[in-house]
Amino acid sequence: MKNLRPICFLVFFSYVQCQTLQRSLLAAALNHTNSQNYLQENLRDITSIMVAQFLQKSTYQEVQTIVEELVDRAEKCKVLKPQESPSECSHQLMTTFLEHVCNNQGMADKQEFSDCCNINNKARLKCFLLYKKDDTEYSDVFQIPNLEQICEVDKENQASVKERYIYETSRKHPFLYGPTILTTSACYETAIRSCCQEENKTECFQIKLEPIRKYVREISLRHRHLCEIGIKFNHKVSKAVELVLLTKKQPKANFSEIVKLAGDVKNLHQTCCEGDVVACVLGRKEMFQRVVGESHERIKNHCDLREKLGDANFHDRLIILYTKKVPQLSAQELVTFTKNMAAAATKCCPLRDEQRFVCMEDSAKLILGALCRRHEAEPINAGVGHCCEDSYAFRKPCFDDLQVDRTYISPPLSCDQVISLKEDLCKAREEQFQTEKQKLLSNLVKQKPRATEMQVQSIIADFAHLVETCCQAEESETCFRGEGSKLIEKCQSLLGHK
Predict the structure, then answer these.
(1) From CA 50, how far away is CA 63, in angstroms rounded?
(2) What percentage of the chain exceeds 90 in pLDDT?
(3) pLDDT one-digit tens code per residue, 61-110
(4) Can you tell me the distance from the alpha carbon of 54 to that of 179, in angstroms, rounded to the nearest whole number?
(5) What is the Cα Rg of the chain in Å?
């Protein structure tokens, strides 16, 4: 499992950066999943999602009444221990819910479930699922009609605002997976609290709602498509699709691990599509922790390397690494790109584990987002295109895994073109001088990508020493001409020039 990068988990773990809120759904998801009493703390919201997704014609108050009764009767869910299976809890909740609907003739008739109630439990659930209708015309998440009034309500009872959002989103998007609704509701709740402090509440909320609205609309279509495949062709097709995707993405991974992973993903899709929100949420929690654990390990290694090398050498290492991955970028672009990455590490690495993870993910989103916009304007290479287009959620590990671009052939440059030895260097500020050094480093790697780090760093060290020596000499230009010839010769030897 360690070698697998589970791109196919996008439908469970992709997240939107609520830029105007300065927090991500990933952070919200982490807060949810790290709780020891996760199920108990979220049981009411989880049950609300299930009820509203099945009973789409019920009013908010009707849903809340049913939820209250179900939660009171869901004893298995209240006492579930961390090591225990959620199956008894989810089975009890679903069975109790279906019985409740079928025992209430008026409710069954209103929802058009009367036919479903005349068949046994297994077939009954499938019958209920067939009545779910995704409102494709519904383009907006729950809209606030009167923000001033909502802010007053929020002051009195913060939970009701979140509950209303969950109710509206669930009944309008009955195939949207429960975990997604839980995490978007956290982002929505934050928007309300933030905008209620602003003078122009309506404008604030319109701006902050847009990322949530867009995300829900897009991911709901994806979930509905996956569920329709499962219902129409059965979920074995889903497993085959996952297996093909994973095999293509991870050709070197152990096949038995890929088969197991594809099965796990297929089972989780099936559970979520069948409306079993308890099992969907807890299954996603377990898989989320698997994925996040892998990402945490990557970030830890990244920060350990920075601590070992120091900031300057760490930046140089990034330049070498990314020049090999994206040599099509100019030396100046590579210096700027890696400078931002190094700055993110400086900012995020001193933080605690969880904060460090969220900080690095948020920084990577901005840095890699800029790189992908650059690729969109002027294509860089196939690897960058794959990472930018394949999976937003796993864009960072995709770039981490990029290998040397062996298709790139650098325009031949002589060493006196690569190494600029001019008196102007003596007038450069320290930051400008560092940039010149790093551009030289990048250009050397482009010319000789197979050279060792020690070989190219040796030339960089000689270049820095030469500049320091000649800038202190009485005749700097003469010094550069005389001493520079030795450096050029060493460079030509590295690049294989005569």
Answers:
(1) 10
(2) 27
(3) 999 999 999 988 887 777 666 556 667 788 888 888 998 888 888 888 77
(4) 16
(5) 28
Q: What one-character-per-residue DSSP string does 411-449 give?
A: PP--HHHHS---GGGGGS-HHHHHHHHHHHHHHHHHH-T
Q: Which two tokens stand for residue 313?
A: 């050498």
Q: Is the dihedral of CA 192, 198, 202, 204 positive or negative?
A: negative
What's the mean pLDDT when you consider all of the chain? 80
- Both tokens of 133, joined, read 């209708």
CA distance 383 to 369: 15
Compute how many other C-beta atoms are within 10 angstroms of the C-beta atom of residue 102. Answer: 17
Per the document, the length of the chain is 498
Check if the beta carbon of residue 66 is closer than 8 Å to that of residue 55.
Answer: yes
pLDDT tens digits, one per residue of 428-439: 888 888 998 999
Taking the CA atoms of residue 491, residue 492, residue 496 and residue 497 in that order, the dihedral angle to the nearest 10 degrees is 160
Which tens digit of pLDDT belongs to each residue from 208-224?
887 788 888 888 888 88
Q: CA 269, 270, 274, 276 torsion: positive or negative?
A: negative
Which residue's entry shows tokens 């070989």?
455
Structure tokens at 196: 């209620």
Half-sphere exposure of 202 (CA within 13 A, CB side): 4
| Geometric angle at alpha carbon 430, from 429 and 431, rounded to 5° | 95
Per-residue CA distances from 141 to 153, 169, 195, 209, 211 (Å): 19, 6, 17, 8, 11
Q: How far is CA 97 from CA 56, 63, 217, 448, in A?
A: 14, 11, 28, 67
Which pair of structure tokens corresponds to residue 374? Answer: 């650059």
